[in-house]
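Fill in residues.
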């Protein structure tokens, strides 16, 4: 099955790599010769050309495509490309229904999509915004300095990535099945392991962890982060129930950050250099909240930062337009005594660099955008589709228990899920419409319409889809 990706930048190449691992037939199209050159190492067809060109879309095989993804840096270019792809596919009497996925950044286009207009006039089936989910990952990751990555799988389901620490003496070099039996409250579910110099693995009951292993752990609720950290060799991290948060920049991102923190009961201070932008936020519905204060001032002026008692804040995050400006802002906040600092970064290469600088947590927008696009590519699934950022070649996906799959009415043990697959969560919807997330156990009874979040290697995902009759 063919998937055409418009844009061979970082997002496009990461998408191509992930989808190729699932044995999709991938075509990358880009008019930037350097991007095309960088993509030549991928096992896919790479075409140098404009994705808004009908001839190039035909050359890429739009007639046979099942998905078209527009992932260039330009919102307008992406929307035109989706419209052109749909028309070219239709005029050629395409063999399959074409799904179009469009990457956009502008809030006005997101609103057009949410109102249904974008689908009507640009033929866009799904819109992906790089910020969607990124702020949530950032805020969750700031709860501890020892978490390497956080992935939110909706509701209370979280995957946290960390290293096994030296103080985890009670669990290292012992089979996970034995530990699960011995621990009164159970062992948090380890869904993937990466050991230095070795291939990522999906653990089973015989797997033994070692100090330094990078692991992905399934946890239910943010309050479960600390028990998991302690279990795997890290110190408990205190995070206040009502944190004081300073946000640098009253940008659209800053406003969304503020809104998210306010929902969780934080006291928020926003610092903005531009008077008009500061007034705009202060006069908005977010600015009317009694728990937010908008300050007009220079975020690099130590006098201003002293006046707002920067050292009394628990968290500092920056929402400026430049990665380097963001880094400078939170480094100064850290220097003035803020213990938790966070960033949303455009440049993925800077994530590891900022960790070495002592910045608590950084989120790569690219990886979040890739996950969101992959979720739409796998729209036949029941929920999120994600890549583990620090444990290569492992995917997470949400499958529904249907009548066809014949798991309903069986316990987890009796379902006999294969060892190459790890069940992380079971999600069940109650009569009131609320979803409940729980940790699976061997005796847990599966019901029709339950959603199972599983992890496996990328090349096994087609087998997982067959198992669940997707």
């Amino acid at each position: 099955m063919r998937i055409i990706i418009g844009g061979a930048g970082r997002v496009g190449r990461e998408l191509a790599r992930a989808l190729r691992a699932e044995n999709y037939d991938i075509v990358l199209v880009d008019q930037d010769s350097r991007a095309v050159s960088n993509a030549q190492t991928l096992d896919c067809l790479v075409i140098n050309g404009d994705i808004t060109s009908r001839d190039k879309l035909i050359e890429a095989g739009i007639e046979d495509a099942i998905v078209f993804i527009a992932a260039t840096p330009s919102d307008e270019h992406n929307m035109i490309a989706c419209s052109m792809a749909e028309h070219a596919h239709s005029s050629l009497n395409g063999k399959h229904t074409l799904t179009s996925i469009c990457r956009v950044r502008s809030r006005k286009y997101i609103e057009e999509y949410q109102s249904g207009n974008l689908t009507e006039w640009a033929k866009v089936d799904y819109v992906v915004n790089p910020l969607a989910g990124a702020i949530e990952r950032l805020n969750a990751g700031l709860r501890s300095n020892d978490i390497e990555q956080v992935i939110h799988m909706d509701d209370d389901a979280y995957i946290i990535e960390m290293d096994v620490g030296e103080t985890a003496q009670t669990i290292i070099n012992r089979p996970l099945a034995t530990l699960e039996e011995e621990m009164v409250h159970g062992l948090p579910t380890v869904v993937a392991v990466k050991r230095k110099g070795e291939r990522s693995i999906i653990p089973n009951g015989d797997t033994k962890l070692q100090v330094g292993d990078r692991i992905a752990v399934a946890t239910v609720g943010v309050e479960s982060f600390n028990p998991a950290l302690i279990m795997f060799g890290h110190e408990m991290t205190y995070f206040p129930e009502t944190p004081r948060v300073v946000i640098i920049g009253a940008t659209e991102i800053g406003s969304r950050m503020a809104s998210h923190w306010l929902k969780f009961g934080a006291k928020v201070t926003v610092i903005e250099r531009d008077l008009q932008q500061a007034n705009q936020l202060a006069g908005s519905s977010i600015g009317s909240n009694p728990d937010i204060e908008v300050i007009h001032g220079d975020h690099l002026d130590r006098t201003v930062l002293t006046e707002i008692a920067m050292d009394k804040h628990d968290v500092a995050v920056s929402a400026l337009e430049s990665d380097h400006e963001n880094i400078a802002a939170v480094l100064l906040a850290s220097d003035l005594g803020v213990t938790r600092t966070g960033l949303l970064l455009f440049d993925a290469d800077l994530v590891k660099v900022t960790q070495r600088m002592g910045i608590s947590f950084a989120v790569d927008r690219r990886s979040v955008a890739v996950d969101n696009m992959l979720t739409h590519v796998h729209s036949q699934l029941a929920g999120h589709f994600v890549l583990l950022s620090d444990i290569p070649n492992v995917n997470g996906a949400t499958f529904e228990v249907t009548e066809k799959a014949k798991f309903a009415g069986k316990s987890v043990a009796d379902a006999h899920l294969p060892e190459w697959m790890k069940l992380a969560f079971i999600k069940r919807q109650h009569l009131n419409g609320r979803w409940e997330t729980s940790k699976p156990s061997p005796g847990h009874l599966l019901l029709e319409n339950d959603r199972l979040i599983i992890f496996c290697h990328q090349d096994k995902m087609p087998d997982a889809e067959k198992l669940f009759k997707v």
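The domain at 2-128 is CATH 3.40.50.720 (Rossmann fold).
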